[in-house]
Amino acid sequence: MNDFLEQCRQAVGAPHVITEPADMAGYLTDWRRRFTGRAQAVIRPSTTEEVAAIVRLCNEFRVPVVPQGGNTGLVLGSVPDESGQAIVLSLNRMNRIRAVDTINNTMTVEAGAILQQVQVAAADAGRLFPLSLAAEGSCTIGGNLATNAGGTAVLRYGNTRELCLGLEVVTAQGEIWNGLRGLRKDNTGYDLRDLYIGAEGTLGVITAAVMKLFPQPKVRLTAFAAMQSADDALQLLSLAQGKCGATLTGFELMSDFCLALVAKHFPQLKSPFPDRYPQYVLLELSDSESEEHANAMLEAVITAALEQEVIQDAVVASSIAQSKGLWNLREHIPLAQAEEGKNIKHDISVPISRIGDYIRMTDQRLQESFPGCRMVTFGHLGDGNLHYNVSAPENAADEDFIKRQPEVNKVVHDSVHEFTGSISAEHGLGALKRDEICRYKSDIEMGLMRALKQALDPKNIMNPGKVI
């Protein structure tokens, strides 16, 4: 193994092969600090050719490779196991914007580029890169692609997969596939791009991508609405889509308990309403025409919703600061829940039309099985993705409740399956849900996935133990 590491040093330079435990520590622990793995080294290449050289060595010596971007994943997909055999292949030195094409509306970017860096580069070119996540100051484009991340603008722009036109990938054999084609139409066989997106580094290493850009909207408007139920929120969604079309770019649902947690742990963040309501929606319009046009559409939506008693109250942000304040309420929900104590997280999706039924049924089942448990339900209602998190009963010991996580998961995921949904909407499977998914996918589906893994990574060195 010393020969392996020495050859790695020759390939990328000795300073970029990290073996000291203290220096590796930040790469070995997951984002939520639930698990710490072990590795023989953290290796930090700076070019695609260096990535390929390292993967060839790993293939030769049968060393597992764990690709890592910003290490912001939530399902243990970007950290090694406890065997100490793997290397962590950190792509954070590969952070260059290679090209911006404002006519083709594309940007070619390396996998280690921070999402926020890409957003800023697009804005500097007079364009919009619409992917937006809570971790955008830390997560990387490669990680976003590897997990097919979603975020707050999926309703209008789609998941990361829909934002990508081409990839550069280092295969499990250390070969470089250059698929960096900025084409919107390319009907020439199997879509290898889509195969690697969402594969969580189990089939190869994404090193660069061609991403779509969009015109900057002339105006963005944010509103916050209060209502009695998730069913009312769905009616509001239908109204907003009917009156605003593609101008509706964000539609976020959150329960009263979510805002109560935010108020408790971040008292500087105030609810815009004097009274409390069971459910709230934050909606955003991005208009390319004018502020007057956007205001007219938003006013029409809110007026109709109030007249039809779909909502009980609403506020519209009158400034950028007020808009940020409303978004802060939404974005601080996970932080507030973390302050409240340990919790059991779920990243699920069901058909949009059935979200109200899903919440009612699953809430009831959880209360029957775990009396007093508290549901922290929020998420991207416009695309059917809920963060359906479960906190321990008030005054109960967190550790005792967390021990029952498999039971809680079974209730939540069985209910998802009944509603023909998915147990992972945007976070991926990683190691956390690798075995769980086998309960819900058919033998045929799992067999096809294993066949692809065997074909592309026959030595099983690419992020083993993740996804399948």
Report on the structure:
- With 468 residues, the chain is α+β, with helices and mostly antiparallel strands.
- The protein has 4 domains: 2-90, Uridine Diphospho-n-acetylenolpyruvylglucosamine Reductase, domain 2; 97-215, Uridine Diphospho-n-acetylenolpyruvylglucosamine Reductase, domain 3 (2-Layer Sandwich), CATH 3.30.465.10; 219-334, Alpha-Beta Plaits; 341-427, Alpha-Beta Plaits (2-Layer Sandwich).
- 36% of the residues lie in helices and 21% in strands.
- It has 16 helices and 19 strands.
- It has helices spanning 2-12, 21-28, 48-61, 115-124, 141-147, 154-157, 192-196, 230-244, 256-265, 291-307, 320-331, 333-340, 355-369, 398-402, 405-418, 443-456; strands spanning 17-18, 41-43, 65-68, 87-90, 97-101, 106-110, 127-128, 164-171, 176-179, 204-212, 214-215, 219-227, 248-255, 279-287, 313-316, 343-344, 347-349, 374-380, 385-391.
- The strands form 4 sheets. Strands 12, 13, 14, 15, 16, 17, 18 and 19 form an 8-stranded antiparallel sheet that branches.
- Strand 8 and strand 9 (176-179) form a beta hairpin.
- Helix 8 (230-244) packs antiparallel against helix 10 (291-307).
- The protein is globular and about 70 Å long.
- It comes from Noviherbaspirillum humi.
- One of its GO terms (molecular function) is FAD binding.
Low-confidence stretches: none
Distance between the termini: 27 Å
The outline comes out as globular
SS element count, helices: 16
Q: Say what the CATH topology of the largest domain is.
A: Uridine Diphospho-n-acetylenolpyruvylglucosamine Reductase, domain 3
Protein structure class: alpha+beta
Binned strand content: 15-25%
Question: What is the count of distinct domains?
Answer: 4
- State the share of residues found in helices, binned by percent: 25-40%
CATH class of the largest domain: Alpha Beta
* Strand segment count: 19
**Quick check: average pLDDT?**
96
Pfam families: FAD-oxidase_C, FAD_binding_4
GO molecular function: catalytic activity; FAD binding
Family: Belongs to the FAD-binding oxidoreductase/transferase type 4 family.
Keywords: FAD, Flavoprotein
